[in-house]
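Subject: sequence -> structure tokens, single chain

Hey, anyone have a minute? Need the predicted structure for the following. Not urgent.
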Amino acid sequence: MIQQPRAGLFGAVRWLFIGVLIGLLTSLAPVALAQTVGKAVVLPNLRLSNGTVLDAASLRGQPVLIYVWASWCPFCARQTPYYQKLHEHLQASKSPLRLISVSIDKRPEDAMKYMNERGYTFPVSFDAEPISKALGSRPGLPRVYVIDRQGRLVVSQAGELFEEDIAAFARHGESTGDKR
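Reply:
Had a minute. Here:
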């Protein structure tokens, strides 16, 4: 009779272990789906907040930086001013590097209010699903991706970056070639 509860306990522990293992493997699935650096990426057309559609074909042969953010994200709030500075630098220097932001806010008006209140002028799209399909799922915010002139993913990073890290993305627009 004493052995019976132990067998039951062992069985419960075994099923608990299997459940935890399945949970861990499932939680890793989004990381496994993320595009691999060095692989070719086909970007979708993106509807921008001003109502225009950014034709993906117009980006061929140009380096592209995609910044994925949300108005409610505290890490995004700290680094988004640096993306605005990068955007202004890219425009002033006539760099071929295109900065496109993608807000994952459920309500686009929340993101637009956030941008307007802070004076952000970089392009924003709310087409998070097509971008996610093109670049793969990746946990965490903010996220940044850089695609080189040949259409290869050269940067895929999640998490907060320092100002100098964001400023360094400008090198991807230099005419001497793509910098990794």
